[in-house]
Amino acid sequence: MHRTDPPYASRLTPHGTSTTVLAFDFGEKRIGAAVGDTAVGIAHPLATLAATDKQRRYAAVAALIREWQPSLVVVGLPTHLDGTEHELSRLARKFARELGTRFGLPVELVDERLTSAAAESSLRESGVATRKRRPLVDRVAAQHILQSYLDAAARPTGNA
C-alpha cells in the first residue's frame, strides 16, 4: 500500500550503496515484471510472464530472482479507484505472501491504481503500435509500480 512515510525506507541501504528490487504486476493470466535499483532510483520493464499455471508461474519468478538477486520484492495491489479492495486484491496479496514464503525475501505491497492505464498511455506516447502493446503493458505497469515505490522510498521521512 502506498504510504506517506514508507515503513520500508529504513530497510534500504543508505548513501551510495544499492539494493536491487524486483516488482510484479500480478494478473491471473499474465504477470509483469520490472527491476530497479535504489541507488539510481529508476525502474526498468523486464518481462511479461505468461502464467498458465502456478508451477510455471513460480518457476519463471524463481528464474528472475536467481538472475537479479533482489533484496526486496514489490507487488502491486490492485484496488477500485476509491481504494476498496476486490477479488484481484485478495489474489495479489496471496501472491505476495507466497513470494515471501517461497523465496525468503521481504515483500512490499504498493498501490497500483491506474498503472495499467499509465502503461498503455506511455506505450502509446512512445509510438508503440496498438497490436504490439498488449505483450508490453504488464511489464510497463510493473515498471510504474516499482517507480512509485522507488520515488516514495527516496522521499525524506521527516526525521532529518
The pLDDT mean sits at: 80
**Structural class category:** alpha/beta
Strand line-up across the major sheet: 3-2-1-4-5
Number of strands: 5
CATH superfamily: YqgF/RNase H-like domain
Polypeptide structure, described:
About 40% of the residues lie in helices and about 20% in strands. It is α/β, with parallel strands linked by helices and about 160 residues long. The chain has one domain: YqgF/RNase H-like domain (Nucleotidyltransferase, domain 5), CATH 3.30.420.140. It has a five-stranded mixed β-sheet with strand order 3-2-1-4-5, sandwiched between helices. Strand 1 and strand 2 form a beta hairpin. The longest helix has 25 residues.
Keywords:
alpha/beta, 5-stranded mixed sheet, Nucleotidyltransferase, domain 5, single chain
How would you summarize this macromolecular structure in one to three sentences?
By secondary structure, the protein is an alpha/beta fold. The chain contains 4 helices and 5 strands, in the order βββαβαβαα. The radius of gyration is 15 Å and the shape is globular.
Please outline the helices and strands.
Layout: E1 20-25, E2 30-37, E3 42-50, H1 54-68, E4 72-77, H2 87-103, E5 107-111, H3 115-125, H4 130-154
